[in-house]
Amino acid sequence: MGDAMNVKVKDIEKLFSTDGYLRPFEREIRRRHGVLQEWLDKIDQGEGGMDQFTQGYKYYGLHFQPDNSVIAREWAPGAKNVYLAGDFNNWHWESHPFKKLDFGKWELHLPPNADGSPQLKHLSEIKVIIRNHSDHLLDRLSPWAKYVVQPPKEANQGVNYKQYVWQPPESERYQRQHSRPARPKSLRIYECHVGIASQEPRVGTYDEFADRIVPRIKRQGYNCIQVMAIMEHAYYASFGYQVTSFYAASSRCGNPEQLKRMIDVAHSHGLYVLLDVVHSHASKNVQDGLNQFDGTNSCFFHDGAKGEHSLWDSRLFNYVEYEVLRFLLSNLRWWHDEYNFDGYRFDGVTSMLYHSRGIGEGFSGDYNEYFGLNVDTDALNYLGLANHMLHTLDPEVITIAEDVSGMPTLCRPVSEGGIGFDYRLGMAIPDKWIELLKEQSDDQWSMGDVVHTLTNRRWMENTVAYAESHDQALVGDKTIAFWLMDKEMYTHMSTQSDSTLIIDRGLALHKMIRLITHALGGEAYLNFMGNEFGHPEWLDFPRVGNNDSYHYARRQWNLVDDNMLKYKYLNEFDRAMNEAEQRYGWLHSGPAYVSWKHEGDKIIAFERAGLVFVFNFHIHQSFTGYRVGTNWAGTYQAVLSSDDPLFGGHNRIDGNVKHRSDPEGYAGRSNFIEVYSPSRTAVVYARVSD
């Protein structure tokens, strides 16, 4: 957490030992904390501790021994028999049976060949064969598979993914060359997708991302990347949210060693790397997914309706099953230990906790919504275990919850009875911006409504603020840039073309929306790849409905690289905004104090990290000698102006002018400064002397 938010609750154990004086929700927090502690005790007693329990990948799956024998293990409690088939035995499905162990575990020993070589070679194709209790043989991929690949279309082998042994010789394994950077105090996240990072109409690669995109991200002033769609998913258009192989890195973009290199290159540029992890549900795929792995409808999931997510058409995990917890917790450990990821964004947290809620269904904030029977406490317990394990394993790990519910204590430490996340996404913020742009004219915007949305968050629980993410870029919606400028982006983004009111307004508001979100909306900031320069159009993955086209599944970097186009203005402002945050550290300095939100003038002013921020959203009115309150006496000077010509502005702010504070109180503050505030302009003032 940022320093200002790193506050511990005193005497928490005393609170948990109290009963009669607790309110109902406090009693429920205590109960949940007790359930989590029971699981920790059970794991300590039965498994020798969380450290051993969360390394299931060292037990299950394939393991090559020093003598070149191979041990294979699976968990398939509903299977009658389990076999291994592949290239190594000419695909004889029943020639290599596993031995049944206790608790649904199965084990197979493959001795080395006569010449001492292993029976399974690097890139050998294999399948796990399950005999169910109806005596039917079913082919499956191992849940612990490290490398799975879809056959090329020209092979005419169908679309199901195939599992290949990943055991490269030592000379072909990537060796890390760089240490992890220090955990950022202020988190500035670049949300990205390797596959669509290519400018060409095709799937981008890990190597291309490392060599071409990572340097761009670094130059823009971001210190963290959040990588989507890494966990293997059979359906590309799912954006990675229908995971089929949880331990395999997506082979569309390259092999495991190339992903390791990409992360190492990011570390060399000082970037933290977060994985977008999907443990809220799983694909329904059977032959190349987890679904019905052991021939039953349960195994990793609940049976019946409880195991189905009707809105997502996917399966829901059984979080109270011992081996399911091992599988999921070990999965987090795997990506951290094997690939060197620095943390996670947990997708679908709200859906995990509230299966009955529809997409977009709101929450009132009533505590009964969070501490009643409608909450999936098994899922909540899993999230607490996951955060406890990750932060114990590595205190520098960062975890972010994709949560729209506002669940109290979600971002407080487990030791306090919280769920342990470091941040939650401020998901109401992008919805508010789209609502304003879509449904209201500029002069109808309520400054109080804007401020409320940006500041309405749980006290002492960190929030990631963002104006838009990948969600707003998907086909069927529009990015902020496209809402603002639409078809004019095709004809009037040249620096040589005549200026238009639509483009001028679009450039101005794009910058203002992003800066006020950055400075007022949270304790971290996120931007989706390309939106920093106002990438036009939308995202649409190749699918039947668009003739498998990659035209909209890419990023047009040529637009921002062309010095004759106005995209460069938005890009430069984004960079300057991040550099200002790096210099002054407003994201980790504690919440802002909003001293002014004037509906008539359309002006918002606030203080944060020793800076004074002034936003004029008026459509045409500029103000001279405008009073702005501040508690810090001294001389101020503009250090960032959205009206700077470098950012496509009209140069109405003189950065050399000094503003001496007046000790007369104003707007509830002990001092004020007088500034010139042009219409549709944001200015940041810093104190340059006492």
Would you kindly provide a written description of the structure presented here, covering whatever features stand out?
The chain starts with 11 loop residues before the first helix and ends with a strand. It has an 8-stranded parallel barrel with strand order 10-11-14-17-18-19-20-21, surrounded by 4 helices. The protein has a 6-stranded antiparallel sheet with strand order 22-23-24-29-26-27. Strands 3, 6, 7, 8 and 9 form a 5-stranded antiparallel sheet that branches. 25% of the residues lie in helices and 20% in strands. It contains 15 helices and 29 strands. Helix 2 (24-47) crosses helix 8, helix 4 (206-219) packs parallel to helix 5 and helix 13 (501-520) runs parallel beside helix 15. The protein is α/β, with parallel strands linked by helices and 690 residues long.
